[in-house]
Amino acid sequence: MVLMAIAWPTLTFLHVLEWAFKSLHREEMENKVVVITGASSAIGEQLAYEYARRRANLVLVARREHRLWGIRENARLLGAKHVLVMAADVVKEEECRRFINDTINYFGQLHHLVNTATLGHNFYFEEATDPSVFPHMMDINFWGNVYPTYVALPYLRQTHGRILVNASADSWFPMPRMSLYAAAKSAVVSFYETLRYEVKDDVGITIATHGWISNDIGKGKFMLEEGAELQWKEEREVPLTGAHIEELAKMMVAGACRGDAYVKHPSWYDIFLLYRIFVPDVLNWTFRLLFAGARPTAGRPVLEAAPPRKPVAAFSSSTSTNAE
Predict the structure, then answer these.
(1) Is residue 147 flagged as an active site residue?
(2) Coiled-coil intervals in this record (predicted)?
């Protein structure tokens, strides 16, 4: 703690200088090619608009193709040069290969890969009655990042491009009712932090971690269904605070263009990381107080796998909350 107290002012000063230098030499996105997965709603949609304002060429990828057409028109009005729409499931390697190859065939290059497809939840682990849905959480949140990255990496090397990842503070912040989601996001962060050392300076990686971006998380169980072969028995909407989503999207794109390794929103969440490292009992006591009256309802049918060949119901962007 003494060493940290001594080093902290110096490190802060160096970070400010680094931020200023990167801001002066930030990447210009005009006419560059950006692939965005999970682009049909919430953070993926807002990221598309942010890149459009920078006059980039966009490839919008999601399972809900019908939603992408409206987003495509909005992006073009905001300044995007060319916008392609591709329906694909990011948990399937062959479909990821298809939309990346189609992008290269059309534009000839790729500069940014933006992975935002995410499935979150807001229920106690014991409340899930069908464990067959558990792999879906890892498929969407982890493999839905790995497969597009695996296919796109050779093309990103050619352009010294960048990967922008939608992670979450839940990857290290042990928030109750988020066990499966937190585990998947932890895997995502570990994967990209390790990959950063493997690709070195050939490909940049920006990891965005954020806290709650919903103004009322308690009203529903469902956070995001983009790419999910899941259905919820209780379909109740969780409204988003639109300004927070837009602010997060602006920070993510600005951070990626500066070449930042991390984008954090809100930044004050870092204080909880210090508590977890140095005084974990404080967090433990806090959670016990906050959730003292809450008890899991064992056997409650919160989540179930979708029947075969039955289409997943489409949700508006107001259905997502913690991280799309």
Answers:
(1) no
(2) none
The class level of CATH for 27-319 reads alpha beta
Domain boundaries, given as residue ranges, for the chain: 27-319
41-74 pLDDT, tens digit each: 789 999 999 999 999 999 999 998 899 999 999 9
- What is this structure's pTM? 0.78
| Residue type, position 272, single letter | F
Q: What is the dihedral of CA 174, 176, 177, 179, to 10 degrees?
A: 30
104 SS3 class: helix
Angle at which helix 280-290 crosses helix 270-278, to 10 degrees, equals 110
Residues 244, 261: Cα–Cα separation, whole Å: 21
Alpha helices in the chain (DSSP H): 2-24, 42-53, 65-78, 93-107, 134-138, 144-159, 179-199, 242-258, 270-278, 280-290
Q: What is the DSSP string of 244-260?
A: HHHHHHHHHHHHHHHT-
| CA-to-CA dists, residue 75 to 30, 72, 282, angstroms | 14, 5, 46
100 Cβ contact list (under 8 Å, min separation 6): 35, 110, 148, 151, 152, 155
Distance between CA 64 and CA 103 in Å, rounded? 19
3-state secondary structure of 168: coil
DSSP result, 143-159: IHHHHHHHHHHHHHHHH
Question: From the candidates 51, 124, 155, 181, which is the catalytic residue?
Answer: 181
How much is the pLDDT for 227? Answer: 39
Specify which of 88-102, 237-251, 290-304 reaches the highest per-range mean pLDDT. Answer: 88-102
d(CA 209, CA 167): 5
